[in-house]
Design brief:
- The chain is an alpha+beta fold.
- The chain has a domain of 74 residues: Orthogonal Bundle (Arc Repressor Mutant, subunit A).
- Helices cover 58% and strands 13% of the residues.
- A hairpin with a 2-residue loop joins β2 and β3.
- The protein is elongated, with a radius of gyration of 16 Å.
- It starts with 10 loop residues before the first helix and ends in a 9-residue tail after the last helix.
Length: 111
């Protein structure tokens, strides 16, 4: 995961910020949703479902892959993409921990 975040921040905050940054675009949220619904997709199938050029979809897939949320496997002349379930679970846990820590002290039962 390449990052421009200064190393002086906590590692868990850096990871969370990278994941949130990767999802901070409606096209990427849509791509993740499509991959969740289909288990796996070839880039061309994703392009068919989005109002974006193939090169733009590829850039969004690259950002999701760099964040570790999506995996890609080359199959001939195309790449098959799928979600990384372990990375998504870890990301979900990090978000839950972060949000729980923001709660008032009397509400820390969620942790």
């Amino acid at each position: 995961m390449s990052s421009s975040i200064p190393q002086s921040f906590a590692e868990e905050d850096q990871r969370l910020a990278e994941g949130l940054k990767a999802l901070a675009h409606p096209a990427r949220l849509t791509i993740v949703r499509l991959l969740a619904e289909r288990d796996e997709c070839v880039c061309g199938e994703i392009v068919d479902d989005l109002p974006l050029a193939q090169s733009t979809v590829s850039q969004h897939l690259k950002a999701l892959k760099e964040a570790g949320l999506v995996q890609g496997t080359v199959e001939g002349r195309s790449t098959c993409y799928c979600l990384d379930p372990g990375a998504l679970r870890a990301f979900e846990d990090e978000i839950a921990e972060y949000l729980c820590a923001l709660s008032a002290p009397s509400e820390h039962e969620c942790c």
